[in-house]
Write a structure and sequence with these properties.
2 copies of one chain form a homodimer. In chain A, 47% of the residues lie in helices and 14% in strands. Chain A is an alpha/beta fold.
C-alpha cells in the first residue's frame, strides 16, 4: 500500500518504520513542525510536509497518529481526498472520523513506545476497527503484515482496553518510581530492584496475576503491613496508596478462596 | 561449605538449588512436614528431617528460610549448636537471631520466587548483613558464589528495601490483575496486555521510571481521565485508586519540571 503518515510522535515513528519494513511505501510524513516531519521522513524515505494542503493524492491510506484532541480537526481536513483514513488512538471513538468520512477505521497498537527504544513490532497487539466489513478486512490484512497479534475490537471495547492499559502500564511504572524514591531516600540504588521488576512482569506472561500474587497483603501478614505503614509515617499519600492496594489484595485472596 | 536448610518453601527451594549448583554441600533439609522436606532434600541430595533435635552437627551454616513470625523460635532451638545462622527475610531484623546467638547474619534474596518457574540466580540481588565484619565477609563470599549482585545492607535499610519491593512487585502485580478483570468484564483476553506489561518492565531496566512515564495523567489529559473514571462508574474502589495514582503522576510531572 501507499501510506501517508500524519504525525511524527512515538506511534507515528514506530508504525511508519514497521510499514516500511513490511514493504509498503510511505508517501509523505506530515507534522506541524517540518523538522520533526523531515526526521521521520528521512528514515522511511518519504517526503516531509507541514501543510495538509500539500498532501500527495496518490496514496491509499492516511494514518492519523496525533494527539486525541486534534484527531477530528485533522480528519476534517483530510476528508476531501476521499481516501481510507485511520486513527491510532485507544481512547478515541471511530466516530471522530465517521463524522467526516465513511471511509474510516482504527489501527490501535497496544504498546508503550519510546523513540529511544526499538520495539519488535511482530509482537505488538494491533486492535482493528473498520467502518464496514470491507475496511475491517483490509486493515486486518495490513496489520497482519507487521504483527502476529491482530484483534478486531470495536470502539466500546477499545476504550476499556485503553483503561486497562493504564492499570497495566502507566500505574505500575509510577509504582516503580515510588519504589525508586524510597530507595533513594536511604541512599540505595534502583539497580537493586530492576531484576525483581522484570521477573514480576515475566511471571504473568504465562500465568494469571492472581495466581502469582505474593507479598504481605496476600498472606494477610498484619505485622508487616503495620510496620510498612509506620515506615511511611511522613508520607501520607504513600500510606493511603499502600492501604488501598493492600486492601484490594486481601480481598483478592478472599475472592479467590470463595471461587475454589 | 556444609549447609543446612531450614524450611522448604520457595526461598528455601531456590537457595538450596543455587548453593548445590555452586558446589556446596546441603547436609539436611528441615521442614515440619517431612514430605516437603523429603521433596527438596531429594533434589539437593540431602537428608530430610522434621525434628530440630535430629540436626547433623557437622554443618557450617543454618539457612533459616521460614515465615517471619517463627524465625525467632527456630533460632532459639538452633542456638545450642553454636553454628553460623542466617535468616532470609527482608522484613525481619538481624536482632531476631542476635537475641539467641552472636554468630548470625542475614542472607536476603531480593526476588519473587515461585516453585513453578526457574530463576537465574546469578542475577538475583543478594542483600547481606553480618553480626560482625568477619561474618559479613564470609556471607559475602558465599553470596558471590551464586550471584553477581551482592550488596551489604543493614537491617534498617533492608526494611525500606522490602517496602520498596512491595511497591515494585506486589502492587504492580495486583494492578495487572485489575487490568485483567476489566478486560474479562468485556470478554477480552489478558493476552492482549501481556506484551505491554513486559515492555513496561523492560523500559526501566536502563532508564529511571520517571523518564519513561506515559499515559493520560503525565500529559494531564483531563478529558481522558474523566472518561476513564466514568467507565469505572460502578467500581468505586477502582475509581479511588485511579484518582490517587493519577494525582501522583500529575505531581511527578510538576516535580520533574521544577527539577529542570
Amino acid at each position: 500500500m501507499r501510506i501517508t503518515i500524519i504525525g511524527s510522535g512515538n506511534v507515528a515513528t514506530h508504525l511508519a518504520a514497521a510499514f516500511k519494513n513490511a514493504g509498503h511505501v510511505i508517501v509523505q510524513v506530515y507534522s506541524r513542525n517540518i523538522q520533526n516531519a523531515a526526521l521521520l521522513a528521512y528514515h522511511v524515505k518519504a517526503e516531509a510536509i507541514d501543510d495538509l494542503n500539500a498532501v500527495n493524492e496518490e496514496t491509499d491510506l492516511f494514518v492519523i497518529a496525533v494527539k486525541d484532541d486534534i484527531i477530528g480537526k485533522i480528519a476534517e481536513q483530510l476528508a476531501k481526498y476521499q481516501k481510507l483514513m485511520v486513527h491510532t488512538s485507544g481512547a478515541t471513538d471511530l466516530y471522530a472520523l465517521l463524522a467526516f468520512s465513511d471511509n474510516a477505521g482504527v489501527f490501535y497498537p497496544l504498546q508503550t513506545f519510546s523513540k529511544v527504544k526499538e520495539v519488535d513490532f511482530s509482537k505488538v497487539p494491533l486492535c482493528i476497527e473498520g467502518a464496514n466489513e470491507t475496511i475491517t478486512t483490509q486493515l486486518t490484512q495490513l496489520a497482519q503484515d507487521i504483527s502476529q497479534s491482530v484483534y478486531t475490537v470495536n470502539s466500546e471495547k477499545r476504550k476499556t482496553l485503553h483503561l486497562a492499559a493504564v492499570f497495566a502500564c502507566n500505574f505500575p511504572n509510577y509504582l516503580y518510581n515510588l519504589a525508586q524514591q524510597l530507595l533513594m531516600q536511604q541512599g540505595m540504588e534502583f539497580d537493586m530492584l530492576r531484576p525483581l521488576i522484570l521477573e514480576t512482569a515475566q511471571k504473568v506472561q504465562n500465568k494469571l496475576p492472581a495466581q502469582v500474587q505474593t507479598g504481605p497483603a496476600i498472606r494477610n501478614d498484619e505485622n508487616t503491613m503495620a510496620f510498612h505503614l509506620q515506615l511511611l509515617n511522613h508520607q501520607p499519600q504513600l500510606q493511603q496508596l499502600y492501604t488501598l492496594l493492600s486492601q484490594g489484595i486481601i480481598k483478592l485472596d478472599i475472592d479467590e478462596r470463595r471461587a475454589q
